[in-house]
Amino acid sequence: MEGVRPRPPRILPPVPSGNQDEIPLSRPKKKKAKKSSLDGVGQVAVHQPSESYEPLTSEVQDVPPQKKRRKKKVPPESETSFTEQNGNDMDPSPAEETVTRKQWKRVKKTRPAEGSSELVVEDEDIIEDEQLKGTEQHPVFSAPTGISQPISKVFVEKNRRFQAADRKDLIKTTENVEMFMDIKASWTTKDVALSVHRGFRVIGLFTHGFLAGYAVWNIIVIYILAGNQFSTLSNLLQQYKTLAYPAQCLLYFLLTISTVSAFDRIDLAKATVAVRSFLTLDPAAIASFMYFAALVLSLSQQMTSDRINLYTPPLENGSLWISDEEKEILQPWIVINLVIALLVGISWFFLSYRPQLDHSEELMFNGEVEEYPLPDKEAKLSS
Amino acid sequence: MLQTSNYSLVLSLQFLLLSYDLFVNSFSELLRMAPVIQLVLFIIQDITILFNVIIIFLMFFNTFVFQAGLVNLLFHKFKGTIVLSAAYLALSISFHIWVMNHRWKNSNQFVWTNGLQTLFVFQRLVAVLYYYFYKRTAVHLGDPRFYQDSLWLRKEFAQVRS
């Protein structure tokens, strides 16, 4: 018994079933068995299974090394208990001699691998063995013995630290991130440019309407303050002088945005397209022209507006106004403001009639490459 | 290849500078309580125009067309913007000098003469055209076709070499 003990770990075949656990133990004892003149049945029974199970061991290589360790550490008491348990099931005779009895029992256990007559006994043995393992190994080894199962928690590295995260949440978030990345990847500079262009078109659309309304309100106020047949021009100057310059500034601001927006509609930068639009009386082209005319008229009245802004009664010292000249200066200014209001109102009507009309967007982002081979055309024309 | 975030940033900066320019052009006449206010506003406006010109040129340099050596093609395409920017900068500086020269001693003085009025009209009209062309160019340079190789570019390159 003492000579046999160190050997089992070396010869242990890692077959998963409980029966094969016993084989290494039986092997070293085979020599002893020979010596101890056991009957031939026992020897064959011990030898054959070890040979027949040899190929199996190569397949199931991951049979736990715990078993080896168990063999090392299993105390003799456990063996006796094992034999006792087995003995209770299959061998009712009492056991006294350890070595011979063990071998005999192992022979009995391995025998069912050959013959099917004692299958029931084998099943029971396996159950017993696993139970035995469970009871013996748990306190000694903390490593998991079962098949690895995916847990619901996973650990994700965030900010150089691993943090626990729920597996389902993580899958969802990764999907979301992928979707977000897809969307972001598809958002090109062209899309940015288009969105800015469309945004400005919307701003321009609002500005057209606001400008038309403001110009009409402005001219109504002027006419009301000027009175019937411009009879109360001094009253107009008195009342309107605080409004004159802010109104002029606001008019320029709105006219600028409206003119740029109207130019965008006809794509003024492309002269051929713009000229064709004018010749075909495109509403956007007419509106652009009207806005530009209104802008010129408005700017031409800057001097008069400043003069109204700095109005002081003609009799005062340093006054810019002479009592007889009021009508001469103000009448053209009022008429020009009326014309501006009309131009702006008609332009607004033309542009709001087809608010989606935009030649810039059509030409700028769709037909650009085709425009470039101009030298080709020139070369052909020259030849 | 131009990155979307970079382009958005540059475009925002350009629009911000244009907005400031429009604001000063529109309302600087109202902010003449003290001559120094207008002076500062005008100086910043001129610097803004200069910055906008620099930015648009940097955007030109970033295009594949420019890097392929077809500078003339690019300048031919955007010559309106370049000419108008230069003209607007010149007109703005001239107008600012003229106005400030007259208003420096008394900001609420009536300074308008026919010459100043004419310069004012031209400066403001060119400003509108500058806004339109600059905005169009800035938006147009977002087209990815300026930043990649293409058949027409190869044809142009072959023509230039031959």
From TrEMBL, chain A:
Q: What is its main location?
A: other
Q: Does the keyword Lipid biosynthesis apply?
A: no
Q: Where is the composition biased (Polar residues)?
A: 78-88
Similarity comment text for this entry: Belongs to the TMEM237 family.
- GO CC terms of this entry: ciliary transition zone; membrane
Chain segments carrying region Disordered:
1-124
Q: Which domain of life is it from?
A: Eukaryota
Gene Ontology BP term (one): cilium assembly
List the protein's name: Transmembrane protein 237
Q: What does this protein do?
A: Component of the transition zone in primary cilia. Required for ciliogenesis.
The coding gene here is TMEM237
Note the InterPro entries from the entry. Answer: TMEM237
Organism of derivation: Python bivittatus (Burmese python)
UniProtKB/TrEMBL annotation, chain B:
Q: Where are its TM segments located?
A: 6-24, 36-61, 81-99, 111-133
Identify one Gene Ontology CC term for this UniProt entry: cilium
| GO biological process: one example | cell projection organization
**Pfam families linked to this entry:** TMEM138 (PF14935)
How does this protein sit in the membrane?
Multi-pass membrane protein
Q: Which UniProt keywords apply?
A: Cell projection, Cilium, Cilium biogenesis/degradation, Glycoprotein, Membrane, Transmembrane, Transmembrane helix, Vacuole
Q: Where in the cell is it found?
A: Cell projection, Cilium; Vacuole membrane
Q: Its domain of life?
A: Eukaryota
Name the family.
Belongs to the TMEM138 family.
Function, as annotated, reads: Required for ciliogenesis.
Q: What is this protein called?
A: Transmembrane protein 138
Organism, as annotated: Python bivittatus (Burmese python)
Primary gene name: TMEM138
